[in-house]
Specification:
The chain is built from 27 helices and 13 strands. It has helices at about 5-20, 20-45, 55-60, 135-145, 185-190, 195-200, 225-235, 240-255, 265-280, 290-310, 330-350, 355-365, 370-380, 385-395, 405-420, 425-450, 455-475, 480-490, 495-510, 520-530, 535-540, 560-565, 575-590, 595-610, 620-635, 640-650, 660-675, and strands at about 50-55, 65-75, 75-80, 95-100, 105-115, 150-155, 160-165, 165-175, 175, 205, 220-225, 545-550, 570-575. The chain has a six-stranded mixed sheet, covered by helices on one side. α10 (about 290-310) runs antiparallel to α11. The longest helix has 25 residues, at about 425-450.
Length: about 675
């Protein structure tokens, strides 16, 4: 076998480890697809739709990947021809005509009729009924600024950009059109009939950003977006094509665009390159042995297009995507430098890949002779249950229930029940389970917090409903889900019941095969052999306890929730090992079981002092030390409480609860100075 094929094999294996195996990528995509399907009824109830796009939706999990979402109102209907006027009910829908412009890939949007036309008036270009892209773009930015979860909100292209924690988010308020102005003739050549029909049926989107070819943005122009069609084409790629696309992304970031403040090439140009190369290279040639040849062909295509100053959009070939960048002298200079740079890399041959530290590591770690590579390829494609489950568990932990009230959670729950009776893949089933669990817990506490019942009979019924919801969540969800029932029992002063539930969870958490932040792979694989994925989640997975910012759980952590929420954090994330010890301390203290209370407090303190991140992940240590301090404060160990609060301040400020720490520290110091042992605060 040639050296080129050997290196291709080695790189394929390395990229499977780095980007994901076919199984892992499929799992990510099915989880996201099911998430979108579950949320659809609740969003439609609010007259809108939302879709994830970009690298994250395509199944990539690069550290620098942001999360892109598109939102649109479903009562706004875009048509391409007046003959489509009678398709819609004018009493319910606003009709918008999409008009072509002189700039390929850009259109104008003119409101024809609307039952609530006054709602559109703030977004019109003055003295017309054309919708301004600048003003429409402001809708999402205003919403993001008002939402305390986002920080550093700003406009970024057609999107509002903001951070939740360390994760960058782009939201675009757009319009959806079920029709195509012109259907791309090349699409049929790279997609199956099923994919082709699906793309044709789903139409396209129009996002609020104009062309900048002539300098300043034209606020009349809107850009056509084919994100949904692109996602379906990426889904249709075989795994070598997917890895080649990922390889291009790594090469762009770590080599071509390294140390460039305003690079000429962007990742969307790479996606376009992949689509054109899928047309040029036979499907059967996209295989592991040819990975580097395929990459080299893509690089040659880019060099040719950069040299000719033209990169045609795959869906609208008349749209030269380089045009806007070439409209300035700076852009032309950047293009010339890029052209020379790409030629240099092409002439370097295979060694150009070694300019990337990531790719160098992947190649050298796997280039050890053909027989080991074939063995490793078989292993990579069929990883053990533990490795696959770690990937899947990480994926469903990304999911976040969006129901802001009981009614929205009802829509989600109703639809998950419908889905659970259908034929689903195991990844789709686990996603439904996760959403069902989160919805049940959210519904229970939201109902509890909004309940105003007064009579004994109504209180009993309300309590029974909440208990049943949380018990069901405990049966459907992972091991740690029962802790929400324990929190409810503690809040309603049923301390013995809370201790019973806590003991059950603690017993489960001590099983040698439990999968939390780490897992003993050998014991896990032995123990769960023959179990369905659903059963593995229920019996062998544990997750952080998530206290969402808008839901009140227990008084002891109310201050931390409020301070964290005020600093744009969406939730408190607490290790289940910490929560079990916390509840044991608090319940035994309320029951007057002093020895058991002190033993649980010692267990919690020992956990915090000697854990290396296995049971208390590093990013949760600020709230975990704070909880230890609260427990010590409750039982009267004021000096211990003060020391724990100070330890909390020294941790990574993930939850941004510093003000709560300082408040509790000052309270302890005040009590120490007064010589007051009263700890009822």
């Amino acid at each position: 076998m040639s050296d080129n094929c050997d290196m291709s094999e080695a790189l394929y294996v390395g990229l499977c480890d780095y980007i994901g195996t076919p199984t892992e990528v499929t799992a990510r995509r099915e989880v996201m697809d099911m998430e979108e399907m579950i949320m659809k009824p609740a969003l439609i109830h609010e007259w809108c739709r939302m879709m994830k796009t970009g690298s994250h939706r395509e199944g990539f999990r690069f550290q620098s990947s942001d999360v892109d979402r598109m939102l649109w109102y479903i009562n706004h209907k875009v048509i391409t021809d007046l003959s489509q006027f009678n398709v819609y009910d004018l009493s319910k829908h606003s009709l918008i005509l999409m008009e072509d412009t002189d700039t390929p890939g850009f259109v104008r949007l003119q409101l024809l009729t609307s039952p609530r036309e006054k709602d559109f008036e703030p977004y019109f270009v003055p003295f017309t009924k054309y919708i301004s892209n600048v003003k429409w773009r402001q809708i999402m930015l205003t919403l993001m600024v008002k939402n305390n979860s986002f920080k550093n909100a700003k406009n970024h292209g057609p999107c509002a950009n903001g951070f939740i924690g360390d994760i960058e988010n782009d939201y675009a308020a757009c319009f959806h059109c079920s029709y195509w102005l012109r259907f791309p003739s090349d699409l049929k050549k790279i997609s199956s009939n099923t994919v082709f029909d699906d793309i044709l049926r789903n139409g396209c989107h129009i996002v609020p950003v104009g062309s900048k070819i002539a300098g300043d943005e034209n606020e009349l122009e809107w850009r056509l977006s084919f994100s949904q069609a692109e996602q379906k084409l990426v889904y249709s790629m075989n795994h070598t094509q997917c890895l080649c696309y990922g390889l291009l992304k790594i090469f762009l970031k770590e080599v071509v665009n390294r140390d460039k403040e305003e690079p000429f090439l962007c990742s969307y140009f790479l996606k376009t390159t992949m689509f054109w190369m899928m047309k040029k290279i036979e499907y059967t040639d996209w295989c592991p042995r040819n990975l580097i040849n395929c990459f080299t062909a893509c690089l040659a295509f880019l060099i040719d297009n950069v040299g000719r100053r033209v990169l045609p959009n795959f869906f609208i070939p008349e749209n030269n995507m380089f045009a806007a960048k070439l409209s300035t002298a700076q852009g032309e200079s950047a293009r010339e430098c890029l052209f020379q740079e790409l030629k240099m890399y092409y002439e370097m041959g295979l060694t150009c890949l070694l300019q990337s530290s990531t790719l160098t590591t992947l190649i050298y770690n796997n280039l050890s002779g053909i027989d080991p590579i074939i063995y490793k390829r078989a292993h990579i494609i069929d990883k053990c249950a533990a490795d696959t489950d770690i990937c899947l568990k990480k994926e469903i932990n990304w999911l976040s229930i969006l129901g802001k009230d009981v009614r929205e959670n009802y829509f989600i729950l109703r639809f998950t029940i419908i889905l659970s009776n259908q034929s689903l893949s195991e990844y789709e089933t686990i996603t439904v389970q996760k959403y069902t669990t989160d919805s049940l817990v959210s519904t229970a506490f939201l109902y509890l917090n909004s309940s105003t019942v007064s009579t004994n009979k109504k209180v009993y019924r309300s309590d029974r409903l909440i208990s049943n919801l949380l018990k069901l969540a405990g049966r459907v969800g992972d091991v740690s889900c029962l802790l929400y029932l324990a929190l409810y029992n503690y809040r309603t002063c049923r301390y013995r019941e809370a201790l019973h539930v806590t003991a059950l969870v603690k017993k489960s958490l001590t099983r040698p095969y439990i999968m939390f932040s780490t897992v003993d792979r050998e014991r896990y694989n032995e123990s769960v052999a023959g179990w369905s994925l659903s059963k593995r989640m229920q019996k062998a997975w544990a997750d952080l306890v998530c206290l969402k910012k808008d839901i009140y759980y227990i008084n002891e952590l109310d201050l931390e929730q409020k301070v964290s929420k005020g600093n744009s954090q969406p939730s408190l994330l607490i290790s289940p090992y910490v929560v079990t010890d916390m509840l044991s301390v608090l319940c035994n203290y309320r029951l007057g079981n002093r020895s058991q209370c002190l033993q649980s407090l010692t267990d919690l303190q020992t956990l915090m002092l000697y854990d290396d991140g296995e049971y208390v992940p590093l990013h949760t240590r600020d709230i975990s030390w704070q909880i230890l301090g609260i427990c010590q404060h409750v039982v009267g160990d004021l000096n211990g409480a003060f020391q724990s609060y100070q330890q909390s301040l020294r941790q990574e400020p993930y939850h941004k609860i510093q003000n709560a720490i300082r408040f509790r520290s000052a309270l302890v110091l005040n009590q120490l100075n007064q010589g007051n042992g009263d700890t009822n605060y």
